[in-house]
Predict the structure.
Amino acid sequence: MILFLKLLVAHLLGDFVFQPKSWVKDKEKKKIKSTKLYAHISVHAFLLLILLQFNLQYWNVFLLIIVSHFLIDLGKIYLQKKKNKRLLFFLDQALHLFFIGIATYISQPFNITFSAIASEHNLLLTCCLLFVTFTSSIIINTLISKWNPEKNNKSEEQSLANAGKYIGFLERLLVFVFIAINQWAGVGFLLAAKSIFRFGDLTASKDRKLTEYVLVGTLLSFGLAILTGLVYSHYGR
């Protein structure tokens, strides 16, 4: 585990701390001819050497991480377009983590069994997370879709696409986490914070229907998240 953490720290420092935006732009523009690409790989190499304490025992780990990182970054900058930029960012990071895991396994073999992954606890957690995000979103929309006064609200045109959906996801996930770790005060803080942010919109709209619509949606969202958190807390221990 210590080796994996060392490799992960090197990766996080190299990709997110010691890589200026100017380097990223230069790589995207010049691709394989970019000197910043090689500077970026050199930073990773230096960090790895420091964290591995120049131990020659890990030469294969060092080589795998550096070569894979270079090829992954190179593939990303050639495949990247405006439409797939976000997707490639997450795919790029997932591949880096995959090779960090492979490098760790080469030096310190470990066992990952399907039975351990698909344990009762993990399956319950997965069900709760799916319910508190996607399923709850559909349930709430189904229950309150007959009203939806925001369709006729001009401020709707100024909102971000799907912002409400993602806010709901994050809101319920946070409530679920607070309940799971038995920190009910966090739920109160989150509800108060949302009320403050929404107060301006509701006051400006002077629309009682919109106020009631938002209130019903909020209470349903928090209620489903709390219920899911209680189920997990009771059966997940």
Notes: The chain has a mean pLDDT of 88. Residues 2-107 form one domain. The first helix runs from residue 2 to 17.
